[in-house]
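User: Modeling request: complex.
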Amino acid sequence: MSFSDDEEILEDFLIEAGEILEQLSEQLVELERRPDDAELLNAIFRGFHTVKGGAGFLQLTPLVDCCHVTENLFDILRTGKRAVTAELMDVVLQVLDVVNCMFQQVKDRTELTPASPALIAALEALVAGEELSSTPEHAAAGDDITDDEFEQMLAALGNPSADASNHPVDETGSGVDEITDDEFEALLDTLHGAGKGISQAMLQDGAQLQSDESIIVAAEKGDDITDDEFEALLDALHGSGKHQGIPDDVPAAAPVKPQASKAADKPIAKPALALVKSNPVPEPVAKDATVETTVRVDTRRLDEIMNMVGELVLVRNRLVRIGARSADEVLSKAIANLDLVTADLQTSVMKTRMQPIRKVFGRFPRVVRDLARSLGKEVSLELHGEDTDLDKNLVEALADPLVHLVRNAVDHGIEIPAVREKHGKSRQGTILLAAEQEGDHILLTISDDGAGMDPNVLRNKALEKGVMDRDAADRLTDEECFELIFAPGFSTKTEISDVSGRGVGMDVVKTKIAQLNGSIYIHSKPGQGSRIEIKVPLTLAIMPTLMVMVGEQAFALPLVSVNEIFHLDLKRTNVVDGQQVITVREKSLPLFHLKRWLIRGEAAVAGESAAHVVIVTVGTHRIGFVVDHLIGQEEVVIKPLGKMLHGTPGMAGATITGDGRIALILDVPGLLKRYAG
Amino acid sequence: MSEPIRNKIHSTQEQVLQWVTFHLDNETYGVNVMAVKEVLRYTDIAPVPGAPDYVMGIINIRGTVISVINTRRRFGLEDQEPTDNTRIVIIEVGKHVVGIMVDSVAEVVYLKQSEIETSPTVSKDDSARFIQGVCNKNDELLILVEFEKLLSQEELEELSQS
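Assistant: Request completed. Predicted assembly structure:
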């Protein structure tokens, strides 16, 4: 994988994770207010999970570790095994700070500083279900600590003249300076003597950290610190600090809220900051020079806009029609203007939904490398046309089929180096993954210079599986043989590996591509390799169709499946086994009357003498549909049928024609399944 | 005291609900005004082949495709040719928006909660399920329909599953 690819993935991760982290801090705060909100918990869980996933891909191990434990914790929380408490939140927020810090380091391309073991340990303890008993909790619980005392404590810890709300880390440091090392040691000794819960490792850790931090961390961990000890601790701090009593200049607006519990958050927040500071890393300067130029928009909103633009186009069409009738020059000029602007608007809206296919292609170098290595093959992957833009939904929908096809190419296509040498090829096989725009659709090709497919092997396989008999198999053209691999349960591999050979993959690929109104072709030459071509429309929102009339109603047939149209003398049909057939260029195709299927009460009309026939392709078969009239080709905006009718067999959706009427878009495979079966 | 103010006072004492009334055959029905999005004149409904028989088809409302229910058939009445008075009431049922075809739409009435009685018949009849209550006003029986139940639970589930 080249460096630039990595860089792009990293860039994507930074955008995505940055947003998630921003959300997380909001969500975590929200969680404190609504600790029982299951959705919120789930959202936070997902947030950490996504960051972990992204970080894992980029091998940012410290970040992964940190997120992983947190994710575990939220998994427990969302399943209700544990309740959200203030102490828990403190730790989690601390984690978020650490994660944010690491994130900044990723941004600065510097080495990551792992989270302090103490923090991870605290998290793990939480996951394990232990109760944290932290100093602030005691403070909150201890009735004998008044607000004033708290302020004193804060004052002693920090520089009292500063606004406590900002808590600049440096100031924490200066506050720390007031406690000498000896005093700190003594403090630790006191804690150590009393608190059995403090492990040796913790202490060592603590000693390396800044003093105030270790007090808190130690106190947090030390389950055995009693209120009295805490008091003693406070006293010790008081004694050592220069500031006795409440300094007069403590700002009234200091965030030390009347509730002790709120105030208790403060000392905890500081160690996190101290942690950040103690890292030998440039300070995380948030929101620096790079201004974000992108906005993330919910695709549903884009769909809405798309829908409205579709409406606008229809209105425009109507206006254009009216304008053509009137002789008013001013009107027709205005309409011509509207025409242009609408067209531009439509293109622009379409473009907002477009994404470069690089999003999908980007993952392949890794897929290929890992797979090739595990199979002991040498494969180089070439990518072409990564900048080709296509609809976002398509980009996502294409990912799985492409992964499958590429894996197939590595597994089935490319031979092992020794075999390749024997055949006079270079040891290294090449897979080419290319995308290009071809008119109103996108052409994706996956080609390899591997073994290719032998039509005869496929024929035999079909016989073996009982898919067809010998005669039928022999009559198949080579192209039709290749199509066989799309049949469910068809695999030429005799052994099933964990990579491929189960015979489900290609079937799924074909179905998926068909769902996208796309088509897939295979070319292959034994010994020279295979080439798989996928054609998908530029966008899923607009579909080219052939409009036909059946009875009084308009129907739209997806143009991708339409093969040819002709006028037919219906007397020249034959009936084979109860099925009307026509012969087109020496091939007999079944003929169906759409009217009998789609119009009520027309199930048994007498055949007219002549009719329009539309030949459509369904999978590998071709069939003929008899329709009343042909209207012509029309680009339509697909409208869902609504909840009530969604899933009606044979209907892919509806659309609104230029004159405001509704036309149903036919789903040919569904139609056949429902009516012809 | 003017009318709206009195209404307001009523509502503080007792909940006053507004109902859009419509006719089907010789009966008057009411549907909660909060569920009604709009009332349309009859337009051509495009039938959808393969749809359930109580769905008449789909109509286009400003770019949105909405299914229309044959309310007569759903209520166990004979089909009738649409007339000048025929209306399609667009209602929101849960998250679904559907149109119901009715013979005519009359008015909006204000009913106090106390005026609404439970349905007199406790039949297990298909149509009884979605009757929320009845109300006798001005010697006329108003049948209050809960359309969430009209699209019975199973059907709704069936629809959202498919």
